[in-house]
Design a protein that fits this description.
The protein has 324 residues and is an alpha/beta fold. The protein has 10 helices and 15 strands. It folds into 2 domains: 151 residues, Quinone Oxidoreductase, Chain A, domain 1, CATH 3.90.180; 140 residues, NAD(P)-binding Rossmann-like Domain (Rossmann fold, 3-Layer(aba) Sandwich), CATH 3.40.50.720. Strands 3, 4, 5, 6, 7, 14 and 15 form a 7-stranded mixed sheet that branches. It starts with a strand and ends with a strand. The model has no long low-confidence stretch (mean pLDDT 97). The structure holds NADPH dihydro-nicotinamide-adenine-dinucleotide phosphate. This is Enoyl reductase (ER) domain-containing protein.
């Protein structure tokens, strides 16, 4: 038997239940899950506020770290430390909010060298997405000398890690937040300036004053449109989220008059080779002290309550779920 958070379609409140091992999906590798992360998508799944779950009943949790308990995959052996993020786990396939998970070997990664399971989940899907976004800016040619880089939703999971990574890489980071009371936190992560989100929530002109060489946006909606309008010539925006909305009320002006590049970030179906490389970079680059400072650890039973807090914008940084 193992403990799991269990979601049924008829009653969208997750329940902590005890399930028999043979309830697990029949897949190649069984993992004894030790840690998971609470991500925005998990919070949507747990609360039913977004159509995340596509197969019922579901064990949510889009990422996890643990130890292989049984393996029919040549790539993983019993006792090996592993982790997983994405691939529709916690959406279409049972996920990490359970003491056991059973998944195809092709979805697993060996735990990156230099990270504990807890640290891997302190980063989790959010940290991985932040790294993919930062790598997109670098790949598209944004250098520290080109000017300031903006990060929206900066006190959240993706935003906090993006601020930290960019500052460590020598960029001047301007953080945008709806919580100006968190300025000290954002400066501690490396932001040089903190701006109120409200500046970006008003309808923007097609082109605003050119200020940013790069941007990581987790908010979408009007904020993303305003960010695009205020990019410098050849600026690059990595769009990875929709915390403020799915729409995009922009014009083509920044793209055709300033050569702005809009790069989409998808962590779920990201190819395994890119994944391994991004996780290796995270393991090397992340400041473990700052990571610990932005992380709160909760037990499995607290996930439903904290999921609601997260969607209400009351959670700062990252939440790690201790599953074992
Ligand atoms: P968090 O909830 O931790 O952070 C989101 C932040 O966005 C909040 O902390 C808040 O920051 C800001 N925010 C919240 N609500 C609103 C709102 N209504 N309007 C404007 N800003 C708001 O979530 P994550 O960091 O984990 O995820 C952020 C986004 O990125 C989500 O939309 C998520 O779905 C997406 N995502 C996408 C991935 C991908 O593969 N593309 C992978 C992972 C996440 P502040 O208070 O500082 O303004």
């Amino acid at each position: 038997m193992f403990d799991a958070l269990f979601l049924e379609q008829a009653d969208q409140m997750a329940k902590l239940v005890s399930l028999p091992d043979d309830a697990l999906p029949a897949e190649e590798v069984t993992v004894r899950v030790h840690w998971s992360g609470l991500n925005y998508k998990d919070a949507l799944a747990m609360t039913g506020r977004g159509p995340v779950v596509r197969s019922w009943p579901m064990v949510p949790g889009i990422d996890f770290a643990g130890v292989v308990e049984r393996s029919a995959s040549p790539d993983f052996s019993v006792g090996q430390e592993v982790m997983l993020n994405g691939w529709g786990v916690g959406e279409k396939h049972w996920g990490g909010f359970a003491q056991k998970a059973c998944v195809p070997g092709a979805w697993l990664l060996p735990l990156p060298h230099g990270l504990s399971g807890q640290q891997a989940m302190a980063l989790g899907t959010a940290g991985f997405t932040a790294m993919l976004s930062v790598q997109a800016l670098v790949r598209e040619g944004v250098e520290p000398a080109h000017g300031p880089v903006l990060v929206t939703g900066a006190t959240g999971g993706v935003g906090s890690v993006a601020v930290m990574l960019l500052a460590q890489m020598g960029y001047e980071v301007v953080a945008v937040t709806g919580r100006l009371e968190e300025q000290a936190y954002l400066h501690q992560l490396g932001a040089t300036e903190v701006l109120a989100r409200s500046h970006f929530e008003m309808p923007s002109r097609p082109l605003e004053k050119a200020r940013w060489a790069g941007a990581v946006d987790v908010v979408g909606g009007q904020v993303l449109a305003s960010v695009c309008a205020s990019m410098k010539q050849q600026g690059v925006v990595a769009a990875c989220g929709l915390a403020g909305g799915m729409d995009f009320p922009a014009t083509v002006a920044p793209f055709i008059l300033r050569g702005v590049t809009l790069v989409g970030i998808d962590s779920v179906m990201c190819p395994q080779a890119v994944r391994r490389q991004a996780w290796a970079r995270l393991a090397e680059q992340v400041n473990k002290t700052l990571l610990a400072g932005m992380t709160r650890v909760i037990p499995l039973a607290d996930v439903p309550v904290v999921a609601t807090e997260l969607l209400d914008g009351k959670v700062r940084g990252r939440v790690v779920v201790e599953v074992r």
